[in-house]
Design goal:
The structure is a single chain. The protein is built from 20 helices and 14 strands. With 427 residues, it is α/β, with parallel strands linked by helices. It has a seven-stranded mixed β-sheet, with helices on both faces. Strands 3-5-4 form a three-stranded antiparallel β-sheet. Helix 4 (72-96) packs across helix 7 (125-137) and helix 10 (166-173) packs across helix 14 (219-231). This is S-adenosyl-L-methionine-dependent methyltransferase. InterPro entries: COMT-like, COMT_C, SAM-dependent_MTases_sf, WH-like_DNA-bd_sf, WH_DNA-bd_sf.
Amino acid sequence: MVELNGNSVPASDSHAGKQVDEIAVSPTAPDQVANLAKSIGSLSKAFTAGEAGARLQLLEAADSLLSALETPRETILRYCWRNPTAFAAIETGINLGIFRHLSSHDRPVPITELATATGADILTLTTTERIMKHLNAVHAVTETGRDEYTSNNFTRTVANTRYADAFPTIAGTTSPAIAAIPAFLRQTHYQNPTNGLASPFQQGFHTKDSFFEFLARDPILSAQFNNLMSVYHQGRASWMDPGFYPVDRLLTPTPTDTDPNILLVDVGGGKGHDLNEFRTKWPAARGRLILQDQPAVLAEATGLHESIERMPHDFFTEQPCKGSRAYFLHSVLHDWPDDTCLKILAPLRAAMTPGYSRLLINENVIPDRGAHWQATGLDWVMMGDFAGAERTEAQWRGLLSRAGFRILKIWVGDAWSESLIECEVDA
């Protein structure tokens, strides 16, 4: 054995030699290339024909083809160079207003104009040039000629503050925590983090605050975080869509119920984007819609449908809405370890009417095989920032059983979207 960065490794690893060098510069899975290329051809036709689900399947196949064709060395450079520098370049482009300026023109824009319009002194043109070349290399903008650029759909999307805020949010709340995970796990002998006050977040940000305490100290960052929460689920299958969850049969109150009765309580619902979506897709649904969150969050909930009621509430305290038809938690429990989740769930169980009330949990349910990177990646974000987790079906069943709930059904839209866990009080 030899020592490498303080860890014992087999001696053979220290002089792997020519064989490993050859592997490192050879495609990772050459035997899969032909079948993947054939699949891409077929899925491309389906996508062009407008078949439902074809785009996402094509995206998966293309990603698999990239991984199969790419050499291990190229993969290393993609993770170590491309991804982190792309993030930095995009955040810089947002700060300078590059994406907004490009998106405001229907013509190519020369770099000299960009430098002037974004406030960068013409003497620092070289810096702007470096930024733009990398933004083009990672497809954040489109190069149309020498030192000339135009917008694409990504450019136009991050020209909008609500979407662009994802980058400063992750930089200001998450990236250092993720970077701290390897050292944290090594120091804790790879024990699963279970304390949101002693997690990679505190280590990465050099703070004693919890994530939300840290966030509350910075109103600008807090607003950016709320914007991210309002858009990160865009484009995914929604439980409110026809064919996902039978809203009309299982959620809408019966004709004998009167209008003042509460139909849906969105607990920790942020700016109310879910309730707005519900009202838009189910305009005839009877009953009150209640948005609950901290007062500072509710103050930013603008553009709500007039039928949605704001209610300041701390979900660790007694639930004021008793006997509601449904209580909804969207991406709340994944922020917390199990013991804290039990404290959030207890007031809801106490408020529910057995046999009538439903608890609807809209979160990832990680499958036993073939989990998607959006779920597994978010699991690492939760581990880093909160000592929380994206849970498997077995983990959900164990947690909810301990909380006194019975799962009626786990409703699944597709592999890329969150599921809906429907529960009732377990008598």
